[in-house]
Amino acid sequence: MMGKFSYLLCLCLASAVWAIELQPEPDYGPVAYEFQWAVNDPHTGDIKSQKETRKDDKVEGVYELIDSDGYRRIVQYKADDHNGFEAIVQREPTDIKIPLPEPPKKLLAAKILTPVVPVAPLVHYAAPKAIIKQELSTGNYVSVSGPTAQYKY
């Protein structure tokens, strides 16, 4: 009886899956955006910017930054379905000096004003007595080990 019920249940599930109609993804119209941002922090020397535009599947943009050696890196890029991603990288020298971090200040240890107290000697213990081995009686032994953790998904 249970086998017939399982067969019937599988048959119903299979027919339900077959009846699901796949819908195409809706067209949300053309995709377009434009953004830009810039950072200019003279204290840390962090100078960078980016500008990007997208219309449908074509993206164009440019970003620039000051490298740690003081050169300005300018990257002009574009991407589309036909050519993929293309970038043109330029480097230009600048007169910008990147500030170096200050070296850490030396800390002087305070003098100990209290007298040095002698430390008690280490205590050594004798080695433990030999462990007495017991002979196992003859017979059948079963070793059982189980899982140490259970995972439920």
Automatic annotation (TrEMBL):
One Pfam match, by short name?
Chitin_bind_4
Cited InterPro entries: CHIT_BIND_RR_consensus (IPR031311), Insect_cuticle (IPR000618), Insect_Cuticle_Struc_Prot (IPR051217)
User: Residue span of the signal peptide, if any?
Assistant: 1-19
Instruction: Name a GO CC annotation attached to this entry.
Output: extracellular space
Keyword Signal attributed: yes
Keyword annotations for this protein, in alphabetical order, are: Cuticle, Signal
UniProt KW Signal keyword: yes
Molecular function (GO) terms for this protein are: structural constituent of cuticle
Instruction: List, alphabetically, the PANTHER family matched.
Output: CUTICULAR PROTEIN 30B-RELATED, STRUCTURAL CONTITUENT OF CUTICLE
Could you identify this protein by its name? Cuticle protein 7
Q: Which organism encodes this protein? A: Drosophila kikkawai
Highest lineage ranks of the organism? Eukaryota, Metazoa, Ecdysozoa, Arthropoda, Hexapoda
